[in-house]
Amino acid sequence: MASSSRPARRTVKRPGFDLLNVPVLGRFLRWKHARSAMQIPLFLIAVLMIWDGLTGNQLAPRNTATVLAWVHYRGFVVLALLIAGNMFCMACPFMLPRNALRRFITPTRRWPKVLRNKWLAAALLAAFFFAYELFDLWASPWWTAWIILGYFGLALLIDSVFMGASFCKYVCPLGQFNMVGSLISPLEVKVREPQRCATCHTKDCIKGNEFQHGCELWLFQERKVGNLDCTFCLDCVHACPHDNVGIRLHPVGRDLAADERRSGIGVLAQRPDVSVLLLVLTFGALLNAFGMVSPVYAFEQWLAETLGLNSQAAILGLIFGLGLVLEPLVLIGGAAWLSRWLTRQSTSLWELINRYTLGLAPLGFAVWLAHYLFHFLTGFWTFGPALQIALHDLGLPAAWLQGSGTGSLLNPALIEPLQLLLISLGAGVSLWACWRTSQRIAPKRALEALVPWAAVILVMTYAAFWLMQQPMEMRGTMTLLGG
Ligand code: SF4
Ligand code: SF4
Asked: Would you list the DSSP string of 71-93?
């Protein structure tokens, strides 16, 4: 008969850093309700943003919906990914009502087989980037509030019908960004003692038990590789009866060249959907940064006059076609073809693309990081006036925010060098990952295999450098916000 109380667990301490062994913080994270404790404050902030966005001051720098979503949230997310791991998914507020609903509703349907991939997520991400530019989302508290509401609604709807974490794994564009970004994170949810898993008969980390469900993203700890698809929800940590799962330090980018089967994901060399998602994020980083610099307006004007276009959607559609379709097609397709020709191999072009695009992810993330950090550092103090107005509207004390900071969080003269440094580091990790892939694909001609990909990295790095050095268009806002 199953015992009704949770069995005592021996604490496994392996050499090497493990966040779960850090005093106080580790104890907190092991607490069964730690995730809810992190979600509740973010949920309350989201409710404030929705209310303020729908009913408050519609000037973007004076509304918490726009300020907190487009300056602070994005800045904190990329910093957390760089320093630790997928911390936003860990504390995701969209999962709070979903988890509450799951106490009453147990979904029985499986996510449709035809959608068990990243095609939908990649399309949603591209659509989001397009809508962001077309509707100037950064400047609209009203639209921002509706996006947050839409997120809550969609997560609730999907996860009340379909089993597991279908929304996180197959739909959520934010989650995809975080999961791809966490490829360069230093921390990984990981088994402590592989030998213990080998003798474990229950496999609770994936199957769950009477106290805790297993991994809802179908990542089996014993065969999990890297951070892809991991939301850092820590369900596996709570489920494992042997206390054999930790949040462990791992060499940054180590799994970028790994070609083994990954639990819950499969072999990446056979996943063109994952490659397309990676390419949307990598080239989307350049495109999104291009949207914030002044030359984009001159280019749009030129396109409109040359082609006789007078629809903003058509002009943007053309720019997106160039940046998200033609550019990757030429650069990535060309590099794969050239790499195969130089190494005289018969590997399919798709397999080469699938294996090398993983290596480009650090450069793409570095461009996002440089871009978002710019807004975060220069616009950090915008939360003061926006929060003050929101609290005042709510009839709550707001005087304590009077005169809350101004100016940039970092000396503005240091921001551009910092951006260039981050992009250079991202390019360096990408080059290293592509080199490792080349060694695996063509051990005797690794250098020839690498050359076309190194050229792609060089071109993209140059483009990112150029973008970061352009004057930023203020897009009609009073303070530094947008992009
Ligand atoms: S992580 Fe824990 S539950 Fe999963 S296989 Fe290893 S020992 Fe078993
Ligand atoms: S492996 Fe699964 S259960 Fe464990 S933290 Fe990642 S997503 Fe959550």
From this structure: IIIHHHHHHHHHHTS-HHHHT-T
